[in-house]
Amino acid sequence: MNSLRFILELAQPYRKSLVGISVLTLAGSIFTLSIPWLAGQLLGGVIADRAPGIPLVVILLVGALVATTGLQIGSTILSAATSGHILADLRLQAYRHVQTLPQSFHDRSRQGEMLTLITFEVAMLSTFLTSTLATVPSLLLTAAGAVVLLFLIDPAMALFVPVLVPLFYILAKLAGRRLRVLSRRARMADADVVVAAETNLDMLPAIKAFAIEDARAESYSRALERARLVALSHSRIDAALAPAMGLLAALAAIGLVLTAGARFEANRDPGDLFSFLFYAALLARPVGGLANLYGQFQWAKGTLTRLRIVLSRDPEPGYAAGERPSRIAGSISFQDVHFSYPGRTGPLRGASLDIEKGEIVALTGANGAGKSTLVKLLTRFYEPQRGTILLDDTDIAAIHVQHLRRAIGMVPQRPLLFDGTLRENITLGIRNVDPDRLNAAIDLAQARDLVSALPEGLETRIGDHGVRLSGGQGQRIGLARALIGNPPILVLDEATSMYDLESEAAFVKDCMTALVDRTVIIITHRAATLALADRVAVVENGVIRTEECRPTR
Ligand SMILES: Nc1ncnc2c1ncn2[C@@H]1O[C@H](COP(=O)(O)OP(=O)(O)OP(=O)(O)O)[C@@H](O)[C@H]1O
């Protein structure tokens, strides 16, 4: 699919407004086209002293000027309103889609780039659709109308127009080639700037701790400088293209003045001479506009390509899976699971493990052995290359991925907290959560004291990444979040790593109530946490070895 087709597809839902803009600007062009003729007649009338005809010409000229202004205002307002709609819709469509893409896609793409694409670049695209593309008919009409009228007034002199066309074409072609390259570079440089700022702000505590503010500011400044230089090169060509074409047209018009005087004086009305020259001058505007359009289309093409690549990517396969078992008991079976991340070998090479419903299994093993990976496969963040994972004897590949994930409460080592209230962080922003469920989750996670100790309780804002909480407090919030949906399966991924031995023992004791009647996978290296488990499974060399059985509690 080429860029033009894709852009027309994007424009399809807004065709009525876009046609409306085109109609208003077309009507504006018709009035604009009448102005040189009327102005020429007025000047001709004044020079030739034809007083009786002048009032009517003046009325028509003023009418045309007022109508042009009114239509311009109307089309600009409609264009801004439509652009706003397209922008909001495009952002939502892109965001929704990006959300459904597999984790492996996000692992490979840079967050800042994605952010630039779905916020800034689509903004440029919506402006391109409304302010540039929708005005093409009027530009064409003005250009064609001016040419036709020039030929009608004096066909011999109007021949300068076809002479200019190849010149314009060559100019646009040369500039277009360079603009395409520079647009791509400029977009990448812009994305680098966002990525650098985003990374630095995210890393700020480390940057301060290691006192490397200057070095980071310098690397950011280098990214800015690269973006500035590329944008400058692009603007130079972009800025020169339309005026250069306008200049060519204007020079041609001057040439005409020099040759036209004698011809016209001899046998024509001076009003026609003025009209001819005004039309020649008017021609420069749509020609410049079309040249601008060309430059902006080169820019838009890059965004279109990137947007198309993202939008045409398939969502995670799990969204298409049909099964939504009404009750999940919680038995899990990993059967001969093989998995490696792109470009790597391992970490899992035939891992098998059966976990009964209600059982607590501790997963342990060296760093990088593949413990977290097993859980990511269970929650279908990734798909195993070989082997099967069963949940209550159903292959998880057949279960709708959201249904599956809602059945598994995840407590990661560092829960992803955001700048909202404690309540929003526990409910993940979902409104109308049953207050009893919320309270039960807070109690089960033993987070009641923590909530009461904060100045505004559940309504306390906790800052970006929960900076206003301690690591251990954050983990309790993470546990409450996992428990709020009352999932039959709970996964604690190094959830006690933030605690000292004493607090760990307390957390472990606290957790016992939360764990009852659930299937639990605890990833840990810590003895106190291992003691919670019915069974210990060791991940080693890509397989799972069940090491030890404890009497069932
Ligand atoms: N998104 C990823 N892309 C590529 N490789 C990855 C990715 N995530 C993990 N790995 C690699 O896979 C291996 C297993 O990682 P995993 O996080 O499952 O280990 P783990 O047993 O949980 O380790 P730890 O005890 O340190 O948390 C590691 O070698 C790691 O580098």
Automatic annotation (TrEMBL):
Q: Kindly give the InterPro entries that the UniProt entry links to this protein.
A: AAA+_ATPase, ABC1_TM_dom, ABC1_TM_sf, ABC_transporter-like_ATP-bd, P-loop_NTPase, Type_1_exporter
**Can you give the residue ranges of the ABC transmembrane type-1 domain?**
19-298
Ranges for domain ABC transporter: 332-552
What the entry lists under SUPFAM superfamilies is as follows: ABC transporter transmembrane region (SSF90123), P-loop containing nucleoside triphosphate hydrolases (SSF52540)
The answer on whether this UniProt entry bears the keyword Transport reads: yes
Q: How does it sit in the membrane?
A: Multi-pass membrane protein
Pfam families per the UniProt record, alphabetical: ABC_membrane (PF00664), ABC_tran (PF00005)
Q: Where are the transmembrane segments?
A: 21-39, 51-71, 114-133, 139-172, 239-261, 273-294
Q: By what name is this protein known?
A: ABC transporter ATP-binding protein
Tell me which species this is from. Aurantiacibacter spongiae
